[in-house]
Amino acid sequence: MQSHTLVRTEQPQDVEAVRRVNTLAFGRAEEAALVDALRAAGGVTLSLVAEVNGQVVGHILFSPVELDRGGGHDVAVGLAPMAVLPDHQRHGIGSKLIRAGLDRLREAGHGAVVVLGHPDYYPRFGFARASRFGLRWEVECPDEAFMALELREGFLGNRPGIVRYRPEFGAV
């Protein structure tokens, strides 16, 4: 039923379409405002769109996160937000966006990705509880919902630490 999906890097002419996808997918404007704020602050590691028949129907954004490990600081990547237009959901577009994003981040040499998401969805991509790596988010959340994925084996190790997202996450 779903036509061919093209996943590509977001371009400047996609800004309005990305805003629309995030607003409609989440039913509110906060995620779209977050994307705009991250973009404006230079806080985007990778931003991809999914197109079907020339229309942007999905979006995923990755931004840098700090791993504060008691005196040592590492940089990883946070996945947020990921959105697909409601009438295109449940057709594998989100999965294609996630897989393409993880592949590109791995190829670029990034060490790990964290996500706050549905514990029944993200493990299929290799995510596991971040607490397994000794990590927790600076904001209280259910342990099973905050997950991490090593892109380079051993990058996360098991050194306790706190994951800190960019300030734009708290500003919208």
TrEMBL record:
Record Pfam families:
Acetyltransf_9 (PF13527)
Write down the species. Answer: Archangium minus
The UniProt entry, under InterPro entries, shows: Acyl_CoA_acyltransferase, GNAT_dom, MshD_Acetyltransferase
In Swiss-Prot or TrEMBL terms, this protein is called N-acetyltransferase
- Domain (N-acetyltransferase): give its ranges: 5-152
Superkingdom per UniProt: Bacteria
